């Protein structure tokens, strides 16, 4: 079980670290947009939209990495006082009964939305905007899939702790 959890977590770690580079590009492009606008009175819609696309990509694909690094909000006032065994049970129940069902729900409700966008190869509504809105919408499914993978790793780790304590 540990080997599977480790493989999943290596992939999640890689995806989170890779997408984090977009934050640097967002800063650089935002700086360029400001310089172009205020010094040269120029700008392009596609460049401005690219910042929003990158921002969405960072948050959607980085959510599983944040979960892995325990960066999401939880009620630590109780959790921090639990034993390792009890924490494992909390993690197991949270992943099984909250995270997984919610991610399945997100896939279920967004599937048609994403497919319809792919069918028409949806692009920006702005003249001169980016053509790949369907790719951006696909990140909803990527986010849910990555979070489900991370939930599987947490479930395996929690089971290992629970069963290892006997």
Structure description:
The protein has 5 helices and no strands. The chain is mainly alpha-helical and 166 residues long. It has one domain (2-164). Helix 1 runs antiparallel to helix 5 and helix 2 packs parallel to helix 5 (133-164). The longest helix has 39 residues, at 2-40. It is elongated. The two termini are 16 Å apart. 20% of the residues are buried.
Question: What are the salient characteristics of this protein?
Answer:
166 residues, mainly alpha
Produce a short descriptive summary.
The chain has 166 residues and is an all-alpha fold. It has helices at 2-40, 45-68, 76-79, 84-119, 133-164. The mean pLDDT is 91.
Report, as a whole number of angstroms, the end-to-end distance: 16 Å
Overall structural domain count: 1
Number of strands: 0
H/E element string? HHHHH
Structural class: mainly alpha
Tell me what portion of residues adopts beta-strand conformation.
under 5%
Topology:
Layout: H1 2-40, H2 45-68, H3 76-79, H4 84-119, H5 133-164
Helix pairs in contact: 1-2, 1-5, 2-5, 4-5
């Amino acid at each position: 079980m540990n080997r599977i959890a480790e493989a999943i977590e290596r992939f999640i770690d890689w995806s989170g670290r890779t997408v984090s580079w977009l934050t640097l590009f967002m800063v650089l492009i935002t700086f360029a947009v400001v310089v172009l606008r205020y010094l040269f009175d120029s700008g392009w819609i596609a460049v401005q939209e690219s910042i929003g696309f990158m921002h969405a990509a960072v948050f959607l694909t980085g959510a599983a990495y944040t979960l892995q690094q325990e960066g999401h909000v939880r009620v630590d006032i109780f959790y921090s006082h639990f034993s390792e065994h009890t924490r494992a049970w909390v993690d197991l129940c949270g992943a099984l009964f909250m995270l997984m069902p919610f991610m399945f729900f997100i896939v279920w409700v967004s599937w048609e939305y994403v497919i319809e966008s792919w069918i028409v190869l949806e692009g920006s509504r702005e003249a001169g905007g980016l053509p790949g809105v369907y790719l951006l919408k696909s990140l909803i499914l990527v986010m849910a899939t990555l979070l489900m993978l991370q939930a599987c790793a947490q479930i395996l780790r929690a089971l290992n702790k629970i069963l290892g304590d006997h």
